[in-house]
Amino acid sequence: MNSQPEYWNRLLDEIVKEEREIALMEVCGTHTMAIAKSGLRNLLPPNLKLLSGPGCPVCVTAQGDIDAVIELAGKPGVIMVTFGDMMRVPGTTSSLQEARSQGADVRVAYSPLDALAIAQRNPDKEVVFLGIGFETTAPAVAICADQARAQGLNNFSIFSLHKVVPPALEVIFSMPDMKIDGLICPGHVSIVIGLEPYEELVEKYHRPCVVTGFETQDILEGVYMLIKQIRQGEARAEIQYQRVVKNAGNPVAQQILEEVFQPADARWRGIGNIPGSGLEFRPEYECFDARKRFAIEDREDIPIKGCACGEVLTGKITPQDCALFGRACTPLKPIGPCMVSHEGACAAYYRYSPPTPSKKG
Amino acid sequence: MCLGVPGKVLEIKENGLALVDVDGNQMDVSIRLTPEVEINQYVLIHAGFAMEIMDEEAARETMRLLKELEEINEFATRVLEPSAG
């Protein structure tokens, strides 16, 4: 990988000389964060837009699902284990962090394997792992279910809110009021799923898709590859992030997903129900399904007044367009998940963009 | 959930685990998604799992860039004023 500043400048020159109106969607929340950090958005002419998308699994978790999780965490005898950024996501009346301050046993883990270990060490408790993430994370969780089964663990379950990305991309491309000319496709989800899902999208919607890495140079290359295709009137699925992503993806990961999970309906914040976009346990693994174990009922999504996370997640507005951004909603006191998540667009803009003129003084 | 870091495999252990060096820190990582991995190869790690084997030169380059970014961030936090809000 060439890291000369000269090379970066050449890429940038090629990108900014583009005069057409082009809107690219950065699907993945980690890309939004990386793009914001790189300052690239500030270097682009106004005709080149990078829109954030629904690739932040915490952000797209439906409000009703968050409320159900918080309620389960508060049940006596339950240890809820979760990834860190779910702790502060606001439910309708509480959060996991608040539940913990009121006595719920909620623990943060880096890996779902930690939850297995907690279950082994606490045989008298019900340990629930909160499974939130796309195809990057779901295989790891599937392996944990498999290991739990092999070990005959009977106090471990998983609250699966896992979702898969390609159905959401179909929805994005099909939205009548959206003009997306190309997709910056998620780097690590693609390690698992490979190129095929994007090839199908390209065939149907004729918009280029480039699987891109997360360093500034990766993003410059990915954006350049998209613009180059658009200039030449092409629409192909390509991999910029070749050092890790293979065309076929990771067959072992795909197989474990297939063994443990099956597609289900799932509600996405800002989009609604997307059929087949969620992952639920297959019958053989049902005993690890926390929703069945605790008879969790589906909850209504109660909208948070003024919160525009849904529109940010579908690229309809930028975080700065939200009336609450930087005022009532900040990282310290977030109103919606986009301001809390490590991959949230609002968190990225808040941290890396200069304040807009209306907020100065 | 796309966060991932490169690490170098030091030792293959039992139970589908490997001892991996991530930027000087040694940790156990599941290699159940990359069962063919060998010692001294680099892997991309996410949530305690090796997701894929990385090209060595590319892995070193990523680690170098991450380190540079870390240094820039440290400098920014220490010396520059935050610009948001």
Low-confidence stretches of chain A: none
Number of strands of chain B: 5
Task: Find the biggest chain interface.
Answer: A-B, 51 and 28 residues
> Can you give the helix content of chain B as a percent range?
25-40%
Coarse structural class of chain B: alpha+beta
Mean of residue pLDDT of chain A? Answer: 93
Rg of chain B, alpha carbons: 15 Å
Percent helix of chain A, as a range, is: 25-40%
Multimeric status of the protein: heterodimer
Share in β-strands of chain A: 15-25%
Q: Based on CA inertia axes, which overall geometry of chain A fits?
A: globular
Account of the 3D structure:
The complex is a heterodimer of chains A (361) and B (85). Chain A is of the alpha/beta class and 361 residues long. Chain A has helices spanning 5-16, 29-38, 40-43, 63-73, 96-101, 112-121, 138-151, 165-174, 187-193, 196-205, 216-231, 251-260, 290-293, 309-313, 345-352; strands at residues 22-28, 48-55, 78-82, 105-108, 126-131, 156-160, 182-185, 209-211, 237-239, 261-268, 272-281. Chain A is built from 15 helices and 11 strands. In chain A, the strands form 3 sheets. Chain A has a 5-stranded parallel β-sheet with strand order 2-1-7-8-9. In chain A, strands 4-3-5-6 form a 4-stranded parallel β-sheet, sandwiched between helices. In chain A, strands 10-11 form a two-stranded antiparallel sheet. In chain A, helix 2 (29-38) runs parallel beside helix 15, helix 7 packs across helix 12 and helix 8 (165-174) packs parallel to helix 10 (196-205). The model of chain A has no long low-confidence stretch (mean pLDDT 93). Chain B is an alpha+beta fold and 85 residues long. Chain B contains 1 helix and 5 strands. In chain B, strands 3-2-1-4-5 form a 5-stranded antiparallel β-sheet, covered by helices on one side. In chain B, a hairpin with a 2-residue loop joins strand 2 (17-22) and strand 3 (25-30). At the A-B interface, helix 2, helix 6, helix 7, helix 9 and helix 12 of A face strand 5 and helix 1 of B.
